[in-house]
Amino acid sequence: MNKLLQALFGEASGEDFPSLSPKELLILRMLIIDAMYGQELVDKSEGELKRGTAYVTLSRMQEKGFIESEAEPRPASEGGLPRRRYRITGEGQRVLHAVERLKAMMAGGVLS
Amino acid sequence: MSHLPAPAAQSYGWFDFRGGPVRAVVFGLCGTVALVAAGVVRAHGGGSMCLANLSPMKPLLAYAFIAFFLSAIPALLSLGLTARSALLDWVCGMTSLGGRLTTLFRRVVLWFAADVVLVLLVFALARSVVRLDAVIGVTVLLVAALHAVVALVRPAAALVGSRSALVSPPGARARGLFAFVFSQKTMQGVFEPLLGDIQAEWLGHVVEGRHWHARMTRLRGYVELGTAIAANGGASFVDLVVKIYKLK
To answer: What number is the ipTM of this complex?
Structure first.
């Protein structure tokens, strides 16, 4: 399975498939739709992501190059610390597409 | 939404002690109950347990001292809580300890002086007409009520009634400590967005008057911060050791 995933991912570049946890996959699936704030990701995950650990996961994903973020100051009427808006990178899209293709192949019985 | 208090800039006026009016009244009641109990013991022949016998001073002076001490308990408690905040702020580099202690000293002198005047006034008016134990009980209650009224009427000016514990956004002090312990990358990537979300949720509850929700958000926020620290702790602990090693 890993070899197939590696093949799907690295068929163009020959790179190793990076490690991807279920939470990271969930975040990538949400971010492929649109850029989001951390709180939005937690809210839309329906309990799968906890706020305490979500930002640690997001930070790790940034280090892997799956996502990028930029700080956005809050409106002057709110004040407080800036929020970060996360968006998926090209690398993140490639990883997600490789995983989705693998899932589709499995669902279609290609790998049975 | 109103302005969120700046987390890194703690400002202290003359009277921003921590605590609450309920606490002042509870301590006043406890003092009164203790004195009444002592009076009952004395009335039933427990002379050796009489409060006045515990002191070599004259009974009246001993009672005055005890009344003052009991009435000052809320103030002492507030002083302790405020001193703890001052120390934390100083550790986090948010305020100068010298200036903070000077302000504390001024407040304590002012409020304790007010207590003394009130105690002496009630004694002077009532000691000749009613039982001494009752006078002391009333005195303690009056002082506690004074603190409670000030706390309710003007929270920012109260010795024991400031609601600054609620006004201070969650993590405002912890942020300075985190900045020392964790790397800048971790601060920007993990703790500042997390604190920002917690503070925004907390502020929403405060603005809409849902104080219990705000408290719950604060508590949940501390748990989430603890989770984030645990999840992020290993690498940052190494960073801290390196930082301390470089400081040496």
So the answer is: 0.79
